[in-house]
Amino acid sequence: MATSKHSDLILDQFTRQAVPFATAPSIKDEAALRLVVEFSGAGADDTVLDVACGPGLIVVAFARVVKHATGIDLTPAMLERARKYAAEQGVTNITWQQGDVLPLPYPDGAFTIVSSRFAFHHFLDPLAVLEQMARVCRPGGTVIVVDSAPAPDKADAFNRMEVVRDPSHVRALPEAEHLALFRKAGLPAPRVTHYRLEGELEALVARSFPKPGDDATLRRIFADSLAGDTLGIQARRDPDGAIRYGYPVAVLAVQRP
Question: Does the global pTM surpass 0.90?
């Protein structure tokens, strides 16, 4: 279970982020959502659980191709947005549940696919969450994790920046650390693919809620990263002066023994 202080940070951040996060072009990008669904091997007979589902974008993407999808999240405002989005999309084979992820409130082997997208960097104990995901996944089913995966030599700088941007951030793991989590959870080595979460700095600031004054710090960190790519996000300045970036994302999927 998350500590009370950290839970309060999550609730504060994601109550305010519910709409801007859900509507950000990079977050709702259909190609990225489709990549995750296809990489999982989802089909018509599957039942899916998405852990820390946020505004429900990946839940709806799964629901379009599987028998049933479930999303669980700590933040009521995110679930309200998720319900609204599903209704707008005309997707009804979904269950939403408000709750924490440790422990997951489901029996062993309850789902054939268990996913988590852009949430692991918020977990105080990502190994415990992955172990819970494996527990509620049926043997032969798929566990899939999608999250930022900074280069090892850029991870500390990337994480310092992310804490400034979002005080509920804990740590984005380099790919090798993600792989180590799977081993520690007793899972085989996952298949891995990658993409870049592309965006523009001012749009990122607008949907983030840093501490007062830290928006200026965030802009300075991004500007300083232009020379030498110190954050590992391919920061570059457009002719119009806007700073663009591409967060490195890893998609890791494994069949549960």
Answer: yes
